[in-house]
């Protein structure tokens, strides 16, 4: 009888524990879907969306803290990296083990603020210490009685390296697209007390975001920048080789074509840039009795992928790969012949490196080394003394150094 009573008590305790757990889950869920009401001391809400992509069977290995700075009473932002801890307000990021979430910040008053830095805290990771990185986003303004959706999503991913037990992680701030902003606003409308607030203008005002320091082998915590860029080629040279035939005789020649390159680039964000390259090179291919004057003009629309290799607050080393199409016009002239023009379409492929230093808050000055992998061929002919005179040529490009001016927008 005693054993039966004990068994019933144990069973009853399990049932009560289950009910309590379900009640706690229900209450927690209810709290998580609730916004505070507006008051004199609570008059603005900032919402930062986040997404965790965990491709491993282990728990997420990093927590993150958002550090905010309010606009100084002087009325202007101090762009130096010196600050006191009391100037910053910190809020832990609400991250799931896997999936999307929202970090709701209610402690910031209405007014102008900025996300100053993000602190990364390792969770049971060997030989890793907390690391804080500076973020350079445009300041945002919290309206009184309004909810402002931050125009970037904090994105964290984690995956195993091959078949080992090692893992790698990456973290980025990705620009929210308009449909993402509307989706988050619709999600907020399901929260209790939402009717007490007004959604602020949710058009993203995006700008450059870069970390203060990065020593990790994983991806850099920085938003691929939107920028305008002007690249000026220095000492650009091509090498031309030729084969000339007339009346059954053959000859060869070569020429060094010198000229200029200029590129106009728009950095669209997400490490992708669109550019237009304009170049002109000329030289002379000498024969035993005369010479051929060669001028080649190129117009090249291309797309470029940029990846930061080393980056801190004042220095950037970037790897690049560009691909596009060459629209080429080559003019060949000879003192005894009419000018011939050859138009061709070629494929452009060009890896490169860029290194730059910040000389102003929104400007990088640097140099780039590009190694063109493309070359092109052409031919023209003339009717000379009743016989066809043929000129076949191949033009190969040499590595070129660019002086680069990059302006964030």
From TrEMBL:
Protein name: Uncharacterized protein
Gene source species: marine metagenome
């Amino acid at each position: 009888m005693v054993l039966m009573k004990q068994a019933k008590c144990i069973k009853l305790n399990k049932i009560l524990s289950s009910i309590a757990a379900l009640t706690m889950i229900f209450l927690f869920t209810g709290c998580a879907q609730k916004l505070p009401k507006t008051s004199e001391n609570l008059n603005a809400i900032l919402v930062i969306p986040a997404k965790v992509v965990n491709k491993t069977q282990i728990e997420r290995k990093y927590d993150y803290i958002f550090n905010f700075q309010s606009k100084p009473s002087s009325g202007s932002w101090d762009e130096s990296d010196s600050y006191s801890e009391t100037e910053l307000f910190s809020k832990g990021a609400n991250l799931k083990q896997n999936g999307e979430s929202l970090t709701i910040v209610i402690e910031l008053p209405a007014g102008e603020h900025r996300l100053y830095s993000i602190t990364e805290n390792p969770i049971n990771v060997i030989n890793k210490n907390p690391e804080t990185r500076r973020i350079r986003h445009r300041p945002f303004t919290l309206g009184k009685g309004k909810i402002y959706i931050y125009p970037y999503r904090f994105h964290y991913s984690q995956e195993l390296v091959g078949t080992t037990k090692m893992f790698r992680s990456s973290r980025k701030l990705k620009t929210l697209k308009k449909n993402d902003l509307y989706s988050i606003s619709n999600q907020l409308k399901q929260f209790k007390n939402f009717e007490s607030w007004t959604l602020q203008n949710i058009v993203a005002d995006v700008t450059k975001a870069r970390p203060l320091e990065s020593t990790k082998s994983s991806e850099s915590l920085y938003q691929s920048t939107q920028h305008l860029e002007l690249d000026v080629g220095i000492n650009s040279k091509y090498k031309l080789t030729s084969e000339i035939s007339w009346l059954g005789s053959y000859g060869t020649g070569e020429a060094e074509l010198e000229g200029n390159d200029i590129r106009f680039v728009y950095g669209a964000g997400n490490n992708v840039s669109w550019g237009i390259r304009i170049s002109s090179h000329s030289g002379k291919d000498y024969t035993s009795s005369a010479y051929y004057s060669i001028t080649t003009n190129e117009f090249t629309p291309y797309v470029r992928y940029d990846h930061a290799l080393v980056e801190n607050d004042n220095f950037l080393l970037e790897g690049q790969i560009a691909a596009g199409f060459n629209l080429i016009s080559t003019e060949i002239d000879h003192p005894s012949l009419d000018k011939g023009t050859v138009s061709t379409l070629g494929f452009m492929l060009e890896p490169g490196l860029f290194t730059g230093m910040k000389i102003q808050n929104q400007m990088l000055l640097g140099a780039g080394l590009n190694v063109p992998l493309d070359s092109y061929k052409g031919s023209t002919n003339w009717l000379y003394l009743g016989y066809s005179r043929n000129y076949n040529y191949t033009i190969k490009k040499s590595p070129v150094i660019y002086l680069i001016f990059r302006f964030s927008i």
